[in-house]
Write a structure and sequence with these properties.
Layout: H1 2-19, E1 27-31, E2 36-39, E3 54-57, H2 61-73, E4 76-79, H3 90-102, E5 121-127, H4 135-142, E6 150-157, H5 165-172, E7 177-178, E8 182-185, H6 186-191, H7 193-206, E9 220-233, E10 236-249, E11 252-256
Helix pairs in contact: 2-7
Bound molecules: flavin mononucleotide.
């Protein structure tokens, strides 16, 4: 009988871990994006040399896309910023980006992801500049050991799509698993949140990257188990029901009274 009691108590202790699911991957959504004047979006500013084709935006297109990805994956956002900020003026930006390409620059970054080792999945987002990813994205991926991690590119553009950057990232990260990225028009990311979400959601679902339990759809499951324990005391033995309750919140089973 004592053996039975021990077995029952052990079972009650082990049950939560038996029910526990595999931990969700830790996701980082790193992105480079530029507020200011940009092509085909925003409102043209009086007196700007580039008003003919560029308007002013408060938040960059890729930043818009990154925010949706972070929301749907439950990932942490990290903005890749250079020590020397990029110009707000569109014409100057075109020139600076070309200079960085010509010199194969690695612009110094303003901050590092201190806990990169904690992340399993790294989304890397960027705009297309002159048919390429910004040189600062090389600075970013070369700053870490991303071996064994899953890397997923995403970008905005105004006609070039991914512009070959998928292959560039795959070649730069031979030790990582690079999944197929997603390119969205900057104008769509900036001005059409519904369309942006409609493009991002199936892409994430296809990679099984969408956080299972977000917002209103949060899944809360409960389970209760009643075990019978035989307890032995000085005056004899008696049977005692032991109730164990479990609730699944955010993919994890939690045991409680
Ligand atoms: C310097 C520069 C170069 C660009 N070159 C291209 C290009 O070659 N192909 C393209 O489709 N879009 C190009 N664009 C447009 C951007 O890719 C697009 O506006 C993008 O959404 C900007 O993202 P951001 O707001 O996150 O910086 C360029 C924009 C800039 C500022």
């Amino acid at each position: 009988m004592r053996k039975l009691l021990a077995v029952i108590l052990l079972l009650a202790l082990l049950l939560p871990s038996a029910l526990a699911e595999e931990a969700a991957p830790q996701v980082l959504v790193a992105f480079l994006s530029r507020a200011g004047e940009n092509y085909n979006v925003g409102v043209a500013r009086e007196g700007s040399a580039s008003t003919a084709y560029a308007g002013y935006i408060e938040k960059g297109n890729t930043a818009m896309m990154a925010a949706v990805i972070a929301e749907l994956t439950g990932g942490d956002l990290f903005e890749i910023q250079t020590v020397t900020p990029y110009p707000e003026d569109y014409a100057s930006m075109l020139r600076v980006a070309q200079e960085e390409i010509d010199t194969d620059a690695r612009p110094a970054l303003a901050a590092q992801v201190e806990n990169m080792a904690d992340y399993d999945v790294i989304f890397i987002g960027y705009p297309i500049w002159h048919g390429r990813m910004p040189q600062a994205i090389y600075s970013f991926i070369e700053a870490y050991d991303l071996t064994g991690k899953t890397v997923i590119p995403f970008n905005t553009h105004e006609g070039s799509g991914q512009s070959g950057t998928q292959r560039v990232i795959e070649a730069a990260l031979p030790g990582s698993t690079v999944l197929q990225g997603l390119a969205i028009r900057g104008k769509v990311a900036q001005e059409d949140p519904e369309q942006t979400r409609a493009l991002i959601e199936p892409w994430l679902e296809g990679m099984n990257m969408k956080k299972a339990n977000t917002g209103a759809e949060a899944e809360v499951l409960t389970a209760s188990v009643t075990l019978t324990a035989r307890v032995y005391g000085a005056s004899g033995s008696w049977t005692l029901p032991v109730n164990a309750h479990f609730t699944k919140i955010d993919g994890q089973w939690i045991a409680h009274n």
